[in-house]
């Protein structure tokens, strides 16, 4: 099944939002999907439980589900309690580490906290659904599954999908376990269609082959007409992958990344990305998105603050966004310490024999390694209480923490370091 770019002018609210705000890369049947969406449709996106939080790279898909619900549709967040035990091989160089059932359950619990902020899971009948594919995958009879489902898949065709082909072309191993993933994902679509009337699977452009498999399976087995829609591969204007920062993944759970750091990620958006990110990651009217993107000079910084506030409000709440902006103003404009900065709390044992400033920089998340911390100091990029750090051999004892210390790496990354009360 070939991808079909959106040249059709949609009539449904859902498809208009998807097209106007830039969510669509390809769609299997734009006219058919638009017609179905006019009466309200059920759609899903699948999320394997490989970490205890979603990150910014997932956020565009979460926003699609949110807009689906806002325009009268019913979103399903499909948790991959079953498929995580296999691991999606798409565009990976090696096999994912296998997780225990307990770790998968723990990760799903952490991810649920994010979805609850964006979607209404009201039990009244029209709310979003959260479903775990372990419900049907864990109990499959292998021989029956091969006979009833496996016979509809051509190995020749599966090998032609880019996600598999690229792995084999690089002569990298692809296990039989991973090769089964695309069959299981296709079966998910069939089950969701049977159980909940789900007619649309959405996902990133790297999921096109998996989505098409599900559409074909639903047609072959149940003679069902279902749809697929993918989003563009999102990178920043300077070529970086969305969801990554200098410190690593930009997590959506506050216990893995503070709301202040999350706010700063959006505040540091490059000028060229402001309008596009406002369209994708906020609910601001399109006219306002265009106005923000058209600003230049110092005014673009005000636009970035609006962007950061809007995205942070959706993810962490309005109070967290207001506090993050206030902290940023205190730190950058007034030279304050910023009580809401990310905080490293050391124990008495940590400093009993003194602790090196290099180690503190690493533990505070301002450097990835001791080598990086020493280079940061050598290049005059580190500060302690706003004074330049020049000695990588500096050792701090308990007395140094009589008041919280403010550590900085460059102009935009800061952390507080405190000593726990005995």
TrEMBL record:
<dbReference type="InterPro" id="IPR002305">
    <property type="entry name" value="aa-tRNA-synth_Ic"/>
</dbReference>
<feature type="short sequence motif" description="'HIGH' region">
    <location>
        <begin position="49"/>
        <end position="58"/>
    </location>
</feature>
<comment type="similarity">
    <text>Belongs to the class-I aminoacyl-tRNA synthetase family. TyrS type 1 subfamily.</text>
</comment>
<protein>
    <recommendedName>
        <fullName>Tyrosine--tRNA ligase</fullName>
        <ecNumber>6.1.1.1</ecNumber>
    </recommendedName>
</protein>
<dbReference type="GO" id="GO:0003723">
    <property type="term" value="F:RNA binding"/>
</dbReference>
<keyword id="KW-0694">RNA-binding</keyword>
<comment type="subunit">
    <text>Homodimer.</text>
</comment>
<feature type="binding site">
    <location>
        <position position="185"/>
    </location>
    <ligand>
        <name>L-tyrosine</name>
    </ligand>
</feature>
<dbReference type="Pfam" id="PF00579">
    <property type="entry name" value="tRNA-synt_1b"/>
</dbReference>
<dbReference type="GO" id="GO:0005524">
    <property type="term" value="F:ATP binding"/>
</dbReference>
<dbReference type="InterPro" id="IPR024107">
    <property type="entry name" value="Tyr-tRNA-ligase_bac_1"/>
</dbReference>
<dbReference type="GO" id="GO:0004831">
    <property type="term" value="F:tyrosine-tRNA ligase activity"/>
</dbReference>
<dbReference type="GO" id="GO:0006437">
    <property type="term" value="P:tyrosyl-tRNA aminoacylation"/>
</dbReference>
<feature type="binding site">
    <location>
        <position position="44"/>
    </location>
    <ligand>
        <name>L-tyrosine</name>
    </ligand>
</feature>
<feature type="short sequence motif" description="'KMSKS' region">
    <location>
        <begin position="241"/>
        <end position="245"/>
    </location>
</feature>
<keyword id="KW-0547">Nucleotide-binding</keyword>
<dbReference type="GO" id="GO:0042803">
    <property type="term" value="F:protein homodimerization activity"/>
</dbReference>
<keyword id="KW-0963">Cytoplasm</keyword>
<comment type="function">
    <text>Catalyzes the attachment of tyrosine to tRNA(Tyr) in a two-step reaction: tyrosine is first activated by ATP to form Tyr-AMP and then transferred to the acceptor end of tRNA(Tyr).</text>
</comment>
<keyword id="KW-0436">Ligase</keyword>
<dbReference type="InterPro" id="IPR014729">
    <property type="entry name" value="Rossmann-like_a/b/a_fold"/>
</dbReference>
<keyword id="KW-0648">Protein biosynthesis</keyword>
<feature type="binding site">
    <location>
        <position position="244"/>
    </location>
    <ligand>
        <name>ATP</name>
    </ligand>
</feature>
<dbReference type="InterPro" id="IPR002307">
    <property type="entry name" value="Tyr-tRNA-ligase"/>
</dbReference>
<keyword id="KW-0030">Aminoacyl-tRNA synthetase</keyword>
<dbReference type="GO" id="GO:0005829">
    <property type="term" value="C:cytosol"/>
</dbReference>
<dbReference type="InterPro" id="IPR036986">
    <property type="entry name" value="S4_RNA-bd_sf"/>
</dbReference>
<keyword id="KW-0067">ATP-binding</keyword>
<feature type="binding site">
    <location>
        <position position="181"/>
    </location>
    <ligand>
        <name>L-tyrosine</name>
    </ligand>
</feature>
<dbReference type="InterPro" id="IPR024088">
    <property type="entry name" value="Tyr-tRNA-ligase_bac-type"/>
</dbReference>
């Amino acid at each position: 099944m070939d991808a079909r770019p959106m040249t059709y002018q949609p009539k449904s609210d859902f498809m208009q939002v998807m097209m106007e705000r830039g969510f669509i890369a390809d769609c299997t049947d734009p006219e058919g999907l638009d017609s179905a969406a006019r009466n309200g449709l059920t759609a899903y996106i699948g999320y394997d439980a490989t970490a205890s939080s979603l990150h910014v790279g997932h956020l565009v898909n979460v926003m699609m589900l949110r807009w689906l619900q806002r325009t009268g549709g019913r979103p399903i967040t499909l948790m991959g309690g079953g498929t995580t035990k296999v691991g999606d091989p798409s565009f990976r160089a090696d096999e994912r580490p296998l997780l225990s059932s307990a770790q998968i359950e723990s990760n799903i619990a952490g991810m649920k906290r994010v979805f609850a902020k964006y979607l209404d899971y009201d039990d009244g009948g029209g709310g979003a659904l959260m479903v775990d594919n372990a419900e049907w995958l864990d109990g499959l009879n292998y021989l029956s599954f091969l006979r009833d489902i496996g016979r509809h898949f051509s190995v020749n065709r599966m090998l032609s999908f880019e996600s598999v082909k690229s792995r084999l072309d690089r002569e990298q191993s692809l296990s039989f376990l991973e090769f089964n993933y695309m069959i299981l994902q296709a079966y998910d679509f069939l089950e969701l269609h049977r159980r909940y009337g789900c007619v649309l699977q959405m996902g990133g452009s790297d999921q096109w082959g998996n989505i098409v498999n599900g559409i074909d399976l639903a047609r072959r087995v149940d003679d069902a007409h279902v749809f697929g829609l993918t989003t563009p591969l999102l990178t920043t204007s300077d070529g970086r992958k969305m969801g990554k920062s200098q410190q690593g993944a930009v997590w959506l759970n506050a216990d893995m990344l503070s709301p202040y750091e999350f706010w700063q990620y959006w505040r540091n958006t490059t000028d060229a990305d402001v309008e596009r990110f406002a369209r994708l990651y906020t609910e601001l009217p399109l006219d306002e998105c265009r106005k923000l993107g058209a600003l230049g000079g110092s005014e673009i910084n005000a636009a970035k603050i609006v962007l950061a506030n809007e995205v942070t409000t959706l993810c962490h709440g309005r109070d967290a966004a207001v506090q993050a902006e206030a902290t940023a103003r205190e730190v950058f404009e007034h030279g304050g310490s910023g009580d809401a900065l990310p905080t490293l709390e050391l124990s008495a044992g940590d400093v009993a024999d003194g602790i090196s400033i290099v180690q503190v920089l690493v533990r505070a998340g301002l450097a990835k390694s001791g080598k990086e911390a020493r280079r940061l100091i050598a290049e005059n990029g580190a500060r302690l209480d706003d004074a330049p750090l020049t000695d990588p051999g500096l050792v701090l004892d308990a007395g140094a923490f009589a008041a919280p210390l403010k550590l900085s790496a460059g102009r935009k990354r800061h952390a507080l370091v405190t000593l726990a009360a005995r």
